Every structure is written in C-alpha cells, then in structure tokens.
C-alpha cells in the first residue's frame, strides 16, 4: 500500500498500527512560526477508528502529528472529527530546570544548549550575530521561541529536527488578477500602527544616552499621518542602551505600517504552472491587482492550507506588506517599455512621474516602507544580493610624506652602553637632542645583538627576536657623534618592556620612522542597505589620514576599513592585525554595508591574507610603506548582482579568451575583466605549448561562483571542476571559497611544472574598475630558488 496516499496511525510508543484508508477531508494547516495542524474525518463505525487514541500518533506525508481531539463531527453524526498537532508540541513537556547563560552567544550556541537534554535535534542554523542570552525554568519550546524572536528569524521543524533561519525563498511566482487570482480577501486595520515609539529596558533603562537625549524614536512613515501614533515597549531583559535601541528599532519596523493580509485561493494557479507543492511556507511572492490599485513585491506566505489526498486546492495567506500607488505601478512598467502607455491609462501626469524617475526616486515599497524597485525600473526581486548599485569606490589622494632622513653607523662601539656615543656618517639633519621613538637603527633579523644585563646575546632568528628596529635617543650632538645616546630594544607585546643595546657595529642603517599621510576618498554612491532600503549617499573625504603601522607592529600591517552604517554614515576606522591571526577586518555593526578595506604598512604582501613578521624596506633602509585597497572575500565589497529576464545582464563580454604569462618566483595575481553583474564563470585553463591539448587531456575546467552580497542566495562562493595533469591523472576540484584554501586549487602537475600551483581563483570587483567583476587567478611558486615561466590560455564563459 502506498504510504504517501494514506494516513498512518501509530500507538503512543510510535508503533505503526495500520492505514486510515477511510479518512476524508484531510487538511494540513501551517502557519509561519506558529502551529502546524492536521485534521480529518473518519466514519464512527469503521474498524480503523479502533486504533485512534488521544496522544497517539498520525503520520501524514512522512510527518508526525499527535492526536489531541477525537469528537463527533458537527455536521455529520456518523463521523469523528480528529484534530492533531505536529510532534514539535512535545517540547512543551520538556523543561529546562537549569540556567543557560551566554554573554554573548550565537543563535546556534543558544539552540544547542536548549536542546542539550531534549529528544529533538538541531539540524540547521543560518543566523548570524551574537547576543546576551539568559534562560531558565522554561519549556524547551518557549526557549526556542524566545531566541527566534531575539534573532528575528524563523523556527520550523521536520518531525523532531529543528531549524532556525529564514524559511522559504523568492521563486519568482506572480499572482495576478485575471491570470491566476480568482479570490482575494484583504482584511486590514490601522489600529496597531506606531510611528513614535518610547523604548524602556530593565529597571527603567532608556535609550537617551544613545539617541541624542530622546527616549523615543520616529518611523520614516511618521509624516503619513496628521499626528504621531505613539506607543511604548518594555524590553525587560535588556540592560545595555545600545542593544535596547537596536531592538526597539526592530520592533518599530514591524509596527509602523498598516498590517495587511491577503488570502489567495489556488483556483487557477495550477493552470499557470504553480501547483501547490511549488509554493511553500515562508516563500516570497509578487501580487498584482490593478482594479485595487495594488502592486506588491516580497509578500511572504504566512499560512498554507492544503488537502494532500484530494484534488481540492487550498489557499495561502500573504502578509506583512503594504499597498502601492498608481505611480508605483507606472515605475514598474517603465522598464518594460510601456511607460507612456501606463501613464495615459492611469491618468498619471507623465512629466511629473518622469521627473521623479530621472531624479532616482523609487516607488514600490515593502512592509517597512522601503523601496523594492529602483530608478532603473529594476525589480529587486530579481537581485541575488543587496549592496552597492553604483559608485562607492575608494581612492587615495594627496599622498605625502616628509623627507626620509637616512644615514649609517660609521664606527663600531663595543661599549655604547657606558660611554653613550654613537657615530654616524651625517648628523646635519638631526635635532640637537631627541627623546622620542621615531629614530631607529635596523639590525637584520638574522644577526646577533647584545643587550643588558651583562652583555647578553640574542641570536638572530630565535623565538625571542620580535623586531629588527631599535629606537635611539640622545641628549647632545658633537660633529658626527650623538652624545648621551641610548639604543633600546622594545618588546612588541609590551611597550613598557625595553632593554638597552650594549654594543653597536658600523655599517648599520640609521633612519627616521616617517609614515605617509593621505586623503581617503569615497565616491558618491547609490546603495540598497541590508534592510532593503535604497539610498543615495553623498561621498566623503577623510583628510590627512596617517597611513602605515607603528615601528614595533608585529607584522608591519594595519587595517583601515570603510563601511556605511545603519544611520547612512560613511565610517572610516583603523584596526590592528595579529600576525596572520586575522585574515580580514572584523565585521562592521549589524545593519552596515561594507565598502572595502585597506591594508597599510610595510609588512610582507601575501594575496591569501596570511601575514608574517617579515618587513619590507627601501634601498636606503627606510620602511617601504604602501597601501592596498581590497574588495575581495576578506572584506566583501557588497555590490549588486543584477538579473533581467532571468539572464544576468548589465554589460560585459560573456565569452572571452586571453593568454597570460606565468613567471613565478613567489605569488603572482592576474585580474581578467568579465564585466558588470557577473556571478559565475566557466573557465578553461590549458597550456599553449603547441601540443594542442584541450582541458580534457591536459589542463582544467573550473566553474567559479561569486558570493552574493550578504550571501543572499545562500550559495557561498563555490569552485567545482575537473582536471587532467601532465602525467595523465584526472581528478576533481571542489570547494567553498568562503575561506582560504590551505594549500592550492590546482597542483603544479596540471601545468606540467614542479613548483607552481594555482593558489586562488575568485570572482571579485576589478581593482581598477570596481564596478565590474573580474576573474582573479593567483599562482604560487613554493620553491625559494626556482622561477618557472610558462603561458596559459584562459577561456571563459561568464554569466
């Protein structure tokens, strides 16, 4: 018997008892983040009813439910009406009698603690961010609901498996009046709208310290009404005003528009190719209803009623979105080439609406009052990731540096600790005395040096050697001699821990540690923020910024990161690295949009983000300061990936071929411009040695994917492919490019070489044209003495 066509009844120990072949009117009702119910009717006098008992189990389409009610049907005295609840309701009987405290903790950590002694299993969590958690004396189900609310995500179950994240996707389904929409009900009310919210935390805590002295925040929609619609919320578990403001703002966004729900019957939907199973709870749909002047995008399915064993079609309920105006619909149709036609039909003033479009204003809004169609008529439903629409590039201008003073030590002194004399080739540019830390002598990292006490020797290269720079102070100057000279060795980890050098040899470089300065400029930009609001942001210049790290920085690098915060301010911040411990800067605050980052300093450059204690110097011995602007996976440049008519578009050459010369002694990186809007590329890599081999007999064929901003398509940035090396051995390449590979992507044998690997492959904004996407290929030669030179033919098809 086909178990997918009938209900299965089980006893209280979940032992199968039989099929319910006489069950009729089987209905499954699911509500997003709420109950999942099963109901059916069955004849009173049928033998199958003997298996039914309260708290027994029913399996429907492989999902388990618990029988909660067995009552005579209200309209049929010859039938039982059976009501069941999904098995997750058992978590109400699981009690947490201990205290769970995470300060802070991730959503996954909290869920794992909650389910520690439960029969339920945590199967998947796709929620970011950390929050303070304290849970005690509560049911497991209530605890999970609490963290769902705290992280503002969805909670759902597959039998006893638990999931946290965002349920459903946008499948491009449109429900249109006159096409597949026959019944529409739209109950709505303005009773609960809030446009000014007073926020209070534990023990009367307010947000005044973080909100310019105000206890309340206003909604962007406050001007829609004659008076503010005022309410308050008490979040008694919050003790931090920053978190209180954040959670209060989140609460306001959920209540600052009229809550409208649309119930849609699936009468003709199947005829349009959208059968019931094509749409799932949590999915986002588009609803068009011209007679009601309605165009909505991103409406979520919050309720799904279906009849799994009958031809009867059910219905869905769409909620949490607002109606748009006729102007909104006009702007949507503009991209379809019928702007004037719709303007005339809807009696919209063409010139007025056209002016708004030209000014970059956008019209169709979601439940938060934020736009979902931009000035190009681009439907954001078709975008795989939110971020920078245009502009937002980072540049360095007016770089300057005071003259570098460099000379040499000209006399060996084995008693510099006592006589405090340092002889230099030239002291004319030096002050009469100096007590700071800007002047230094560089002792090569592999050379022994002598420090107090008792002329103790430190061998170059041992673990204790943390720096090659020794700062110099002096009290006087006599000809080419510095008097009262003291030379200090300083610990990188503790600036107060210094030791004096006891002797010095001639020939060492004496320099002033001079760091450059420059203006950091961010161009004007149009962005769609993580909350899906579109804004035009004026560029900003950060004048006379100090570049480069300090002399005793461990790896010679510092970060300068740039982002747009949730208040639409462009932020420029400095952050230290930790000698390879950080591969990219820390994340900006939640709700921010990354622009990119700079690595500044005089450390060793490595394309994979690994930093070491090596430093780079100019030929005169001064630090070789440099700045590099990055938009790669270490600090995602969040630019739009845009689509039109299901094809990725907006410029670029989808097919291309290029010969590159690989001449590696260490790292070598190439950027091949693919064009705008590209998110994947099929890349063939073959040798051009006249052998006419293709990538099936000698070379590789890779598919390289670009991660959407905020990972909106949940695909990460993947690499997959096949290769055949010069020995005829074939293999596969698989990987997620969210993290660096530990060694390489393609072995040196794929190129017929001994040392040179394909170390990294990626799609990323082009360094010189950051509004386009490039194919990045980094090769690495692991040999310290052998340089390998060869040509490769790179052929691609980019989408």
From TrEMBL:
All copies of domain Prophage endopeptidase tail N-terminal, residue ranges: 7-86
Domain named Tail spike: residues: 98-324
Alphabetized Pfam families for the sequence: Prophage_tail, Prophage_tailD1
Protein name: Phage tail protein
């Amino acid at each position: 018997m086909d178990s997918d066509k009938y209900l299965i009844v089980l006893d209280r120990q979940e032992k199968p008892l039989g099929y319910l072949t006489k069950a009729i009117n089987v209905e499954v009702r699911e509500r997003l983040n709420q109950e999942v119910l099963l109901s059916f009717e069955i004849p009173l006098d049928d033998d199958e009813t003997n298996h039914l008992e309260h708290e027994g189990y029913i399996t429907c389409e492989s999902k388990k439910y618990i029988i909660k009610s067995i009552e005579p049907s209200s309209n049929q005295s010859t039938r039982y009406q059976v009501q069941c609840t999904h098995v997750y309701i058992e978590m109400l009987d699981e009690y947490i009698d201990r205290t769970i405290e995470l300060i802070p903790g991730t959503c996954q950590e909290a869920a794992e603690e909650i389910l520690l002694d439960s029969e339920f299993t945590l199967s998947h969590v796709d929620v970011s961010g950390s929050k303070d958690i304290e849970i005690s004396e509560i049911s497991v189900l209530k605890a999970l609901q609490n963290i769902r609310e705290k992280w503002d995500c969805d909670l759902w179950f597959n039998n006893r498996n638990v999931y946290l994240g965002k349920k459903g996707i946008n499948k491009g389904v449109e429900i249109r009046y006159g096409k597949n929409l026959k019944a529409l009900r739209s109950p709505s009310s303005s009773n609960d709208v809030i446009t000014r919210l007073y926020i209070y935390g534990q023990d009367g805590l307010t947000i005044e310290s973080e909100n310019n002295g105000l206890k309340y925040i206003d909604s962007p929609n406050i001007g829609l009404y004659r008076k503010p619609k005022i309410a308050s919320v008490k979040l008694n578990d919050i003790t931090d005003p920053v978190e209180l403001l954040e959670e209060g703002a989140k609460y306001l966004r959920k209540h600052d528009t009229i809550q409208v729900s649309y119930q849609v019957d699936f009468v003709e939907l199947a005829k349009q190719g959208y059968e019931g199973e094509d749409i799932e709870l949590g999915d986002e749909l588009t609803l068009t209803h011209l007679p009601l002047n309605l165009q909505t995008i991103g409406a979520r399915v919050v309720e799904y009623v279906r009849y799994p064993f009958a031809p009867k079609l059910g219905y869905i309920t769409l909620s949490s979105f607002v109606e748009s105006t006729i102007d909104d619909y006009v702007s949507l149709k503009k991209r379809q080439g019928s702007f004037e036609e719709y303007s005339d039909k809807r009696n919209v003033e063409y010139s007025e609406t056209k002016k708004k479009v030209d000014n970059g204003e956008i019209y169709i809004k979601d439940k938060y009052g934020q736009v979902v169609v931009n000035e190009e008529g681009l439907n954001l439903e078709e975008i795989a990731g939110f971020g920078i629409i245009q502009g937002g590039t980072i540049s360095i201008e007016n770089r300057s540096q005071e003259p570098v003073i460099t000379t040499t030590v000209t006399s060996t002194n084995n008693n510099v600790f006592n006589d405090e004399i340092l002889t230099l080739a030239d002291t004319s540019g030096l002050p009469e005395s100096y007590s700071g830390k800007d002047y230094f002598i560089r002792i090569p990292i592999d050379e022994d040096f002598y420090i107090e006490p008792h002329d103790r020797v430190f061998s170059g290269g041992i673990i204790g050697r943390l720096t090659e720079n020794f700062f110099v102070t002096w009290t006087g100057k006599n000809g080419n001699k510095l008097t009262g000279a003291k030379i200090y060795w300083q610990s990188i980890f503790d600036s107060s821990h210094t030791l004096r050098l006891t002797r010095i040899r001639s020939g060492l470089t004496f320099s002033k540690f001079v760091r450059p300065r420059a203006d950091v400029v961010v161009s004007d930009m149009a962005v769609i923020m993580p909350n899906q609001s579109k804004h035009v942001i004026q560029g900003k210049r950060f004048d006379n910024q100090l570049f480069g790290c300090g002399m005793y920085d461990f790896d010679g690098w510092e970060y300068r990161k740039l982002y747009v915060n949730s208040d639409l301010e462009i932020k420029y911040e400095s952050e230290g690295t930790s000698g390879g411990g950080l591969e990219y800067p820390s994340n900006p605050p939640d709700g921010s949009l990354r622009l990119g980052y700079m690595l500044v300093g005089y450390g060793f450059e490595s394309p994979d983000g690994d930093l070491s204690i090596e430093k780079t110097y100019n030929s005169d011995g001064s630090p070789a300061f440099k700045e590099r602007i990055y938009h790669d996976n270490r600090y995602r440049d969040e630019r739009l990936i845009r689509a039109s008519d299901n094809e990725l578009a907006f410029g670029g050459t989808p097919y291309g071929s290029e010969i590159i010369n690989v001449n590696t002694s260490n790292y070598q990186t190439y950027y091949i411009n693919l064009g705008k809007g590209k998110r994947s590329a099929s890349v063939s890599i073959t040798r051009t040695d006249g052998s006419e081999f293709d990538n099936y007999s000698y070379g590789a064929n890779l598919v390289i994917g670009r991660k959407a901003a905020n990972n909106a398509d949940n695909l990460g940035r993947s690499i997959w492919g096949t290769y055949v090396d010069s020995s005829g051995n074939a293999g596969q390449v698989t990987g997620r490019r969210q993290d660096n590979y530990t060694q390489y992507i393609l072995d040196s044998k794929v190129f017929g070489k001994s040392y040179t690997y394909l170390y990294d492959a990626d799609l990323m904004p082009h360094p010189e044209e950051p509004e386009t996407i490039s194919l990045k290929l980094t090769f690495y030669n692991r040999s310290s003495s052998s340089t390998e030179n060869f040509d490769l033919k790179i052929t691609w098809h980019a989408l």
